[in-house]
Write a structure and sequence with these properties.
15 strands, Phosphatidylcholine-sterol acyltransferase, six-stranded parallel β-sheet, AB_hydrolase_fold, 3 domains, globular, alpha/beta, about 425 residues
Length: about 425
């Protein structure tokens, strides 16, 4: 067994090599990986600190917190895979993913099994998975125990430099990001308890801050609370890059896979991505797109919103249709949050709106991508749906567009972090 320093060095080399490989093909992924490897911290200035800060709960985005597993499996996919463990170990992000056989072991451990009758998901047989660090920030700051893959560390550290205290005035609510919100009853009970606990401890209502898909969990949670409860316990919601109307990228992920910008076999990682209920949940909605917009184009068919069932059939993933059927109503209805909202997102960055495949669809990657406006990951049509709530609730809706900012810039970019700080400290101005 390698020691901590050796493991850290190996993972660093892997991530650096992936960054170099991607630099020519997609500079935006390179920038993200550089921020992961060397997360910027922001200015440290003692004069900047504030002793009276409103409590804050952060909800991360998709794949945005660690998962841990414990095994007692009836069978394994390869004799080198671990069959039984007497302890929980890190499942995401795990160095074994990068190994030729390790990826097969990892997929079999992290996959979900979907039941069409109950409409519920369960873990792979013999696998227990837990979310570490609920109420703490470490699980969302770094995705691995060696603190190499940074995610929300820059944001949290910036807040600490302002006067926040980890696990006290700023806390996090990580979740099982494989599972869509409608299966997360226990998580939402814990989130409500955490908010009430922070309100009591600090005698102030709590701000919620979500990144990407985390905002959909927050919105789902707020929908289930009474207005009286929200008025008492919630100060406001800061949403960063929220896919209110889904994302076109989710269709490409389900069709031909997405390797998260890492050196992973796309067809293998697609197996895992198709077992989740979150990826089908994020399909583009009719609220965000016209009915005749083509999301996926192949030599034999053009897939629009009306063609989702055929899409799932044609890619050999019929469970996806049933998952989407069960979850689509929430995003279609898109209820207002009932709290003051600061809807912040990047704009004017090329963002996929149509993926063009050749006759090898869906086993190969798209041969062409047609772009529109957005933040490189989510289209503006989806990001900007929060504007419609201005006429649907009495609480204020602030729409904050960040020109030329990518999806992850809202958690790394100093201007975006300054904006978040201004909101929390009551210094935000529409002008």
């Amino acid at each position: 067994m390698r020691d901590h320093s050796q493991m850290s060095f190996v993972l660093s080399l892997i991530l650096v090599s992936v960054s170099i490989q991607l630099s020519a093909s997609d500079p935006s992924k390179t920038n993200w990986l550089l921020n992961v490897l060397l997360p910027p911290i922001g200015p440290e200035d003692a004069n900047f600190k504030h002793s009276e800060v409103p409590p804050l709960v952060i909800v991360p985005g998709h794949v945005g917190n660690r998962l841990e597993a414990k095994l007692d499996k009836p069978a394994v996919v390869h004799w080198l895979c671990m069959k039984k463990s007497n302890y929980y170990f890190t499942l995401w992000l795990n160095l074994n993913m990068f190994l030729p056989i390790g990826i097969d072991c990892w997929i079999d451990n992290i996959r979900l099994v979907y039941n069409r009758t109950t409409r519920r998901s369960s873990n792979s047989p013999g696998v227990e998975i837990r979310v570490p660090g609920f109420g703490k920030t470490y699980s969302v700051e770094y995705l691995d125990p060696f603190k190499l893959a940074g995610y929300l560390h820059t944001l949290v550290q910036f807040l600490v430099n302002t006067g926040y205290v980890r696990d006290d005035t700023v806390r996090a609510a990580p979740y099982d990001w494989r599972v869509a919100a409608y299966e997360q009853e226990e998580y939402f009970d814990k989130l409500k308890q955490l908010i009430e606990e922070m309100y009591t401890a600090h005698n102030k209502p709590v701000y919620l801050l979500g990144h990407s898909m985390g905002n959909l969990y927050i919105l789902y949670f707020l929908k289930e609370q009474s207005q009286e409860w929200k008025d008492k316990f919630i100060n406001g919601l800061i949403s960063l890059g929220a896919p209110w109307g889904g994302t076109v990228k989710s269709l490409a992920v389900l069709a031909s896979g997405d390797n998260y910008g890492l050196a992973l076999d796309l067809m293998k990682i697609r197996q895992q991505q198709r077992t989740t209920t979150t990826n089908p949940w994020l399909l583009p909605t009719s609220q965000a797109w016209p009915a005749d917009h083509v999301f996926i184009s192949t030599p034999s068919y053009n897939y629009t919103y009306k063609d989702y069932r055929k899409f799932f059939t044609d890619i050999g993933y019929e469970d996806g249709w049933f998952k989407w059927q069960h979850s689509k109503r929430f995003l279609t209805d898109l209820p207002p949050p009932g709290v003051e909202l600061y809807c912040m997102y990047g704009t004017e960055v090329l963002t996929p709106m149509t993926y063009v495949y050749d006759e090898n669809f869906p086993s190969n990657q798209p041969v062409q991508i047609i772009y529109g406006g957005g933040d490189n990951t989510v289209n503006k049509r989806s990001l900007s749906l929060c504007e419609q709530w201005k006429d649907q609730q009495k609480q204020k809706i602030h729409v904050i567009e960040l020109r030329n900012k990518h999806h992850f810039d809202t958690i790394y970019d100093i201007d975006a972090l300054q904006m978040i700080q201004d909101i929390l400290l009551g210094n935000y101005s529409e002008h």
